[in-house]
Design goal:
With 445 residues, this protein is of the alpha+beta class. The chain has 16 helices and 22 strands. The model has no long low-confidence stretch (mean pLDDT 97). Bound molecules: flavin-adenine dinucleotide (FAD). Flavin-adenine dinucleotide binds next to strand 3, helix 6, strand 10 and helix 12.
Length: 445
């Protein structure tokens, strides 16, 4: 039955102008995967999932025709930006059509009075950032995959990253100011959503609307300077992280890596045997203050100069989940967790370290959460099986950490575990037959 419907839809898709069909077996495999292999649990869960058809529209009209055909033939449709998600967000659980958004990549409008930008979903963050810099602006939040990831994929599938130290997370009010979406209906509608209506589609894994363009806020551009600070002692390093974050300096990134991580990742931030390392992006007028704060506690301050965007070897590319990427490149037996630590953090970090030893290596990121400076952790975890991982997650929770489980496929389970009625309502409105990225919104199931 599905075979017949697939044949019929393929016949229709072939006739749509400005639509490319990618039918080779290798393309179907390639565009059915993301970076879920960081999780051994997701790896075994998702390995058999595969698109039946891959399409790449070049216009919004072609995209609408795909939506209409999927609705008419009851074929699942999964959207794909750059495919850099970590939880199988763009993996088609039920096969069907995977739609590549990369050709819808225009910057439609930049408003110099407000700094807001209206940009098509497939635009790469690096291209958007470059254009904004020409206007004296920059993105507030970027994933460490900012060179390869798309703006639509970041808003639908990401959460925060570089910039979170002062701008919090993507779902905080004020980042996403509006959306243009296409509904999954026959015929589909093209809707312009304001900030309030767009909220329910933010971080919903493309389950409740197809973004064609996004209106987002930006920040004044700062020439960020790279600084590292090395500490011999973990307690001192953590305390210095908190001191730097609370100082009156403008930061874009403030990460802390345990010495056993520093030894293994690429050495472009400088060699440091046995030292715990802070990686910091700071405004030019804050460099001397950080130097003074480091000197005061006897830590070693290193000024690396202004960020160089050209080659992918910046401190950004050692932070957030790039730390996990580099550690796994050396030894794929590492996986990871994501959590917000309770405050004060030290005793929790020490308790877990004393129980798990070198099976747990600390990687911390300073973030702003609901207006308050907090510390998030993305620890490297030695994979010892699901039972062991569950035990560790339980211990983290019991000690007061808020877990964002990266080993699950639904929006809710990777978040706070609760169903968001607005997300489900938006799906009802924009995808009444439940064909968009099926299986990822637990509230719908
Ligand atoms: C090494 C590494 C580091 C990372 N660091 C970070 C980080 O710092 N912060 C962070 O948040 N994430 C991070 N990630 C995860 C990921 O890179 C980001 O979330 C990224 O922004 C996803 O963008 P993408 O274009 O690759 O989206 P994809 O992976 O292609 O898609 C993500 C989700 O968005 C949906 N989607 C895509 N386009 C649309 C659309 N037009 N309309 C509706 N839904 C759509 C997809 O269906 C999918 O559910 C990291 C991943 C890796 C591998």
């Amino acid at each position: 039955m599905k075979e017949k419907r697939l044949k019929e839809i393929t016949f229709e898709l072939e006739k749509i102008p400005h639509l490319e069909l990618l039918e080779s077996s290798s393309d179907r495999d390639k565009f059915s995967r993301d970076f879920f292999e960081y999780s051994p649990i997701l790896t075994s869960q998702l390995k058999g999932c595969r698109a039946d058809i891959v399409v790449r529209p070049r216009t919004v009209e072609a995209l609408s025709s795909v939506a209409s055909a999927c609705a008419r033939h009851k074929i699942p449709l999964t959207l794909r930006g750059a495919g850099t998600g970590n939880y199988g967000q763009s993996v088609p659980l039920k096969g069907g059509v995977v739609m590549l958004m990369s050709q819808l990549n225009k910057i439609r409008n930049f408003d110099s009075a407000t700094g807001t930008v209206f940009v098509e979903s497939g635009c790469l963050l690096k291209d958007l950032e470059r254009e904004l810099l020409r206007h004296g602006r920059q993105l507030r939040l970027l994933p460490s995959t900012w060179r390869s990831a798309s703006v639509g994929g970041f808003v639908a599938g990401g959460s925060g990253g570089i910039g979170s130290v002062r701008w919090g997370f993507l779902r905080d009010p004020g980042h996403l100011l509006g959306l243009e979406i296409v509904t999954l209906q026959d015929p589909p509608e093209i809707l312009q959503l304001d900030e309030k209506s767009a909220e329910a589609l933010n971080h919903a894994y493309g389950t409740n609307g197809i973004f064609t363009a996004l209106k987002i806020s930006t920040a004044p551009a700062v020439k960020w300077q790279e600084v590292t600070i090395d500490c011999s002692d973990w307690t001192q390093a953590l305390s210095l992280l908190n001191t730097c974050v609370r100082a009156a300096v403008d930061l874009h990134l403030c990460s802390l890596l345990e010495n056993k991580i520093v030894e293994k990742i690429p050495s472009w931030s400088g060699k440091a045997i046995g030292k715990h390392r802070l990686l910091i992006l700071v405004a030019p007028d804050g460099v001397s203050t950080l130097n003074r704060l480091a000197f005061k506690v006897g830590a070693k301050f290193n000024f690396l100069g202004p960020e160089n965007y050209s080659n992918g070897t910046g401190l950004r590319e050692l932070s957030w989940n790039h730390t996990t990427l580099h550690m796994r490149a050396v030894d794929s037996g590492w996986t990871y967790l994501q959590m917000l630590l309770p405050c004060p953090e030290l005793s929790v970090l020490e308790t877990l370290k004393s129980r798990w030893g070198d099976d747990l290596l600390w990687h911390l990121e300073a973030v702003r959460q609901q207006g308050v400076q907090r510390i998030a952790a993305l620890p490297l975890v030695r994979w010892r099986g699901k039972e062991s991982l569950d035990k560790l997650m339980k211990e983290c929770k019991d000690l007061g950490a808020i877990l964002f489980n990266p080993h699950v496929i639904t929006v809710e389970d990777g978040g706070l575990g609760v169903i968001d009625a607005d997300q489900v309502k938006a799906k009802q409105d924009n995808d009444p037959t439940g064909l968009l990225n099926p299986g990822k919104l637990r509230g719908w199931l």
